[in-house]
Write a sequence for this structure.
């Protein structure tokens, strides 16, 4: 068995004081407990507010994350669309440039052909003009020769006609004189005077 404790007898004054101390301690403890409970209640309220804020922040973070994901997806879609449009436009421009280069090449070939044809036409025209000028000069020379020949023929013909007319007049005069003399002779045979008739 355990030894019995010896109880000391505390005097009453001391006992009242102890009870007062104990009561003060109890009150202080109750007050401390109340303060601690208030503090715990405040802390609990703070924790609830923090948890509510954390839930709200998580929800907002999820919303922001979803929004960011949507924006990233939209950005990717826009970039993809712009890239596709850029590639399409680049392809169209390359094709258009190739088409224009082909057109320019064809037009240059046509221009070269047209220039060659123009040079050929000019040469032919110059040659025709030279031939025409030569023909005109030749014809002018022939015309001048013919004019000279015709003048000569005309002069010869006129000279021939003049000489023929002179010869004919001379024959006429000779014939007329002969006839005149013959008539005078016949008239004198008949005894007539030609001056009287």
């Amino acid at each position: 068995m355990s030894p019995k404790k010896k109880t000391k007898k505390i005097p009453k004054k001391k006992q009242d004081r102890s009870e007062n101390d104990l009561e003060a301690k109890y009150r202080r403890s109750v007050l401390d407990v109340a303060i601690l409970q208030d503090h715990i209640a405040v802390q609990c309220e703070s924790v609830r507010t923090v948890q509510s804020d954390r839930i709200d922040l998580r929800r907002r973070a999820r919303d922001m994350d979803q929004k960011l994901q949507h924006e990233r997806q939209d950005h990717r879609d826009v970039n993809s669309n712009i890239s596709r449009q850029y590639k399409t436009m680049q392809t169209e421009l390359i094709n258009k440039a190739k088409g224009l280069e082909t057109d320019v090449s064809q037009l240059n070939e046509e221009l070269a052909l047209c220039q060659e044809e123009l040079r050929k036409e000019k040469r032919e025209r110059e040659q025709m003009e030279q031939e025409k000028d030569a023909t005109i000069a030749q014809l002018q020379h022939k015309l001048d020769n013919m004019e000279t020949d015709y003048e000569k023929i005309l002069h010869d013909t006129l000279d021939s006609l003049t000489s023929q007319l002179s010869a004919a007049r001379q024959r006429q005069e000779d014939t007329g004189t002969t006839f005149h003399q013959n008539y005078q002779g016949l008239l004198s045979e008949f005894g007539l005077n030609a001056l009287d008739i």
